[in-house]
Automatic annotation (TrEMBL), chain A:
GO terms for biological process: ATP synthesis coupled electron transport; electron transport coupled proton transport. This is NADH dehydrogenase. Belongs to the complex I subunit 4 family. Keywords: Membrane, Transmembrane, Transmembrane helix. It comes from Jiulongibacter sediminis. It holds the Pfam family Proton_antipo_M. It is found in: Endomembrane system; Membrane. The keyword Transmembrane applies. GO terms for cellular component: endomembrane system; membrane. Residues 126-411 form the NADH:quinone oxidoreductase/Mrp antiporter transmembrane domain. GO terms for molecular function: NADH dehydrogenase (ubiquinone) activity; NADH dehydrogenase activity; ubiquinone binding. The chain crosses the membrane at residues 6-24, 31-50, 70-96, 108-124, 130-150, 162-182, 202-221, 241-260, 272-291, 298-319, 325-347, 367-384, 404-424. It is a multi-pass membrane protein.
From TrEMBL, chain B:
It is found in: Cell membrane; Endomembrane system; Membrane. The lineage of its organism: Bacteria, Pseudomonadati, Bacteroidota, Cytophagia, Cytophagales. This is NADH-quinone oxidoreductase subunit N. Belongs to the complex I subunit 2 family. GO terms for biological process: ATP synthesis coupled electron transport.
Amino acid sequence: MLIHLIILIPLAGALISLLAGKNNQSLSKNIALLGSLISLVVFIYAAIQHQAGNTELLSLNKPWLPEMNLALKFSVDGISLLLIALSQVLIPLIILSTSKIEYHKSHLLYALILVTQSALVGVFSAKDIFLFYFFFEAALVPAYFIALNWGNKESSKASFKMFIYTIFGSLIMLVALVFLYSKGQTADMDALISTAEFMPSGVQRALFWAFLLAFAIKMPLFPMHTWQPDAYTTSPTPATMLLSGLLSKMGVYGLIRIALPLSPWAAEHYSVIVIGMAVIGLIYGSIIAIKQDSIKRLIAYSSFAHMGLMAAGVFSGNIEGLQGAVFQMLAHGVNAVGLFFVAKIIFERTGSRSLSSLGGLNKTAPALSIFFMIILLGSVALPLTNGFVGEFLMLKGLFEKHQLLGIIAGLSIILGAVYMLRLFQKTMFGESNELTESVEDVSGIEKLTLAIISGLVILMGVFPNVLLKVSEPASEALLNLLAKI
Amino acid sequence: MYPIISLSVTGLLTLFLGFSENKKIVFPASIAFLLIALATAFIDWNAPGFYFNDMLQVNNTSIVFWAILIISAILIMGFSEGFERFEFAQPAEYFAIVQFSLVGAIMMVSFKNLIMLFLGIEILSVAMYVLTGADKRNIRGNEAALKYFLMGAFATGILLFGMAMFYGATGTFNIGSGVFIGGDNSFFLWIGCTFMLIGMLFKVAAAPFHLWTPDVYEGAPTIFTAYMSTIVKTAGFVALFKVLSTTFSGLQDFWWIMIAVLVTLSLMIGNIGAVSQNSFKRLMAYSSISHAGFMLLALLGDHENALGSIMFYSVVYTLATISAFGVLMVVSKERIEKGRVYEQNDLFKGLAQNNGFLATVLIIAMLSLAGIPLTGGFWGKFFVFRDAASSGLFWVIIMAVLMSAIAIYYYFKPVLLSMSKKTSLESITINPLAKFIFAITTFGTIVLGIFPWILRSLF
């Protein structure tokens, strides 16, 4: 019974950081870091035990609102385990990445980051649909307030747009959940699966589109993506990292955990349409990314393209596609945080995010450019980096499902290489100018953070099986469930 | 039963306290009187019974509502600071009227006989007409009071007419087992039911009987706006529930479509109307209309859960509303324009820079009103959605959900303004009592957001 500890430790950290770290950035940061690391250690212990067969540790079942049949029910399978691991690893990295700049009211910033962590663990482990919904929404609120409070006027507009969009989608999903609950008289996900199986096709269609709307906005999936580039570009970097690295994964996770099992017939029925939408988004995002001048906006569009491929993988309906999507969620989380961190470092030192005004950083900051290269290659999906495994598996799955769409989706790898290498060339190579001449290289905590991220990129690329094995039983179980229908 | 006696006596005492030389004593004495009333409410705990020739019914449910009403009154009156800032203030009168009005509210939540319901509604309403015009020299306040009085008097007439028809059809004023359509009386029963509902729905500001709301909310002194929007609404909804779930339960086929249409109207008018409001009090007035719509949703479901949902909703709504109006009161007294306190939305500009505590209170109140998880407001909405779902009314729920999305837009207007970097405010002074009340309302909102069963398990 450690799952509630993993949720509560960050919350406690948030509270302590809020109370003790007032007006003292380094103290509040250290408290927050400590809180997230303790949570990580507890999680690693529990995860090892879980893999050894002791599944009790990461599950909990307590009544919540007994007369309504709502329970505080948590349990994890392989997919959940990997995503919790992702959030546990990325949050300390995000906290580390904030070390260079002074934030006003920093204690509040760190408290909000930790609250997001708790909510994410909740989302990835909840087994009660309303508990899931509760955490799904709760994760957004702190991220929104980070964007609002530490951003500029533009970002408050963009993040407000994001907030309204996502809440709107979630509310539609809430209606669908309340409907299922009123039919099944239970809020337990596993029990509802058997209720959903026998829903008439018309009802399933409505449920599916309600679920898809919520998750497609969250990811975002074409054509519900219009909030994303602005929000990612204008938000302060910690908020962007949270949004792109972690919150977007809640959308894919929701597809796997809610949309597929709770409207199985419709999910199969509409899979080609959804894959079509995803592939359009994939190509569209990649092409727009090629033309971008702002580093952050370029990464934002690349992120949008990657999310499209993940949705396609999930809906391909075979083990390769699903496993690839799960793996790519982890890889993209790490890569997005790394890329946005590099963008932040470049901006802090040169004061510019515009590709046309940068160049020649590899001479003044060689270490930065090496780390950047590694993370970037991960994003381009070069073999032996983490991006390759996921994309390869997803494309293979997609080919099996629908050859034409698979071929089109395959183009995205080429396009991805084009915009990413252009990004690298325009920033790192070329002539130095007055902006980039006197840039100092990364050092200290920045170097450590980048080294950890680069290490993850390579390790995940070389030993993907370690992670794939964890999620394989869960993916197979889900596909077996869908195959029955 | 005991709080009715206690409040009537202490109300009179408060009036006499007004003659004393030391005006400062009235405020603490009134709070003490309210606390005494709160204590006497629990004398009847676990001792259900009937009073006044079976015209009042007391049981644990009604005692919970008494406590909610009296505690809300105490929290709101805590902001009055003894009305020292009011020009030409008569604090003793205000406090006395507040205590009398609570007598009316208590009768509304525990009546067994329609005469008691009528008396309760009238005692509460007349008190509210007076309090709306409490700021005598304010023309807007006078206008609001007159409007409220004229329209309210009309609604009362309709209510009374409905009761008379109901008496004609059934031969009794007692509510109890359901009445059924059939025979020669059905026409009068329909009229009785419709007119009584109209009279009561006017009091809770459900559309299309909402027209008084924005003007009255804006014109009344803020403290009494807060009072009106919480106490009247809670008592009014319990009264509606009592009538609909007992006597009129047999007529459900007749009134459910009426309520469903009113829900739709209230949600649309409330939420769409609020979008373009610049005055914070008008915004809250429209929000109050939309919350009336949400609470009506609970009445559409099965009656076993409805009272619990109404109770939960009114508590979270009361907490958030007290926070919001409290912040408005504290901040607006710092900015006087043309001799009047400034109550537009942009009053809150830069509040977070200036006073983080007040900004936090305001933000949490707005999140709760918008129904975002982690706050009690989410569960309030969830419970009423679930109730409506049990009757299969999904088109109403989808409507309500769309309107909730609109609601986020206008509830976030003050939030966004308060986070803005520029500020026109100077340092804001909060007295310790107000700080204490904010702590209670904000903490209560969060606790109910995470542990909703604390309240839900009461009944």
